[in-house]
Backbone:
């Protein structure tokens, strides 16, 4: 919630993580977990009220948060967010990409092409956009990138949808290219593939799961712990891909 200002150089240089989709679900949980481990947290998302609420949670527990309202699909917003982090803290050590989209229309028979473009734009192009603009800072810190993908990005999942499956599968290649090309600068990327998770994102399914189905799914906190495992890995360790699923996953 702080306005971007020059960092007081007398403060300890705590690591900084930028979380997209930070206002809810897995992004929110990842931000709160990182803050509890001493990370400063920059929160991106399209809903300023949600971002402010998460920032209050972070600051209420003694952490530091910076809210960055905007749309990852807009290069102007992402450019300003990267610059604001640089102005405020002068560093970026981690990037958690948790913004995502899907639609109840998931088959070739019923999908809408405008929705397909939006899903691919959010799930794939926007990830590349944020990474591209964050890389100069990440190179300086030998930072880590956690791309929150999907079980459908690891193994074909018939119900996930044409656009969602294609965009999430492509994230594996994006992470591999980062690891192949940025190893010399110490930048590491993880393709994190969660199975069924009980979050608001389930509302985008053609049939929204009920209480019983949700009770056996992963929680956002489960994913946050996996994200933090990757963020906390020593600089010489790279977690290329991590699949986490409930025992009920089909």
Residues:
């Amino acid at each position: 919630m702080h306005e971007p200002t020059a960092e007081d150089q007398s403060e300890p240089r705590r690591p900084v993580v930028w979380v997209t989709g930070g206002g809810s679900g897995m992004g929110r949980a990842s931000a709160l977990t990182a803050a509890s481990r001493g990370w400063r947290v920059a929160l991106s998302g399209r809903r300023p009220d949600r971002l402010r609420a998460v920032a209050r949670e972070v600051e209420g527990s003694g952490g530091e948060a910076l809210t960055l309202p905007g749309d990852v699909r807009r290069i102007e917003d992402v450019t300003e967010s990267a610059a604001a982090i640089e102005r405020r803290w002068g560093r970026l050590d981690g990037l958690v990409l948790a913004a995502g989209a899907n639609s109840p229309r998931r088959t070739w028979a019923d999908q809408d092409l405008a929705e397909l473009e939006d899903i691919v734009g959010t799930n794939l192009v926007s990830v590349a956009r944020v990474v591209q603009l964050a890389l100069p800072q990440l190179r300086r810190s030998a930072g880590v990138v956690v791309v929150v993908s999907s079980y459908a990005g690891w193994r074909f999942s018939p119900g996930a949808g044409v656009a969602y499956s294609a965009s999430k599968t492509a994230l594996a290649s994006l992470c591999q290219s980062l690891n192949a090309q940025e190893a010399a600068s110490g930048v590491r990327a993880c393709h994190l593939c969660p199975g069924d998770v009980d979050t608001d994102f389930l509302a985008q399914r053609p049939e929204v799961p009920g209480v019983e189905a949700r009770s056996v799914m992963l929680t956002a906190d489960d994913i946050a712990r996996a994200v933090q495992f990757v963020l906390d890995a020593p600089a010489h360790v790279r977690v290329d891909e991590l699949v986490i699923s409930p025992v009920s996953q089909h």
Observations:
- The chain is about 40% helix and 15% strand.
- The radius of gyration is 17 Å.
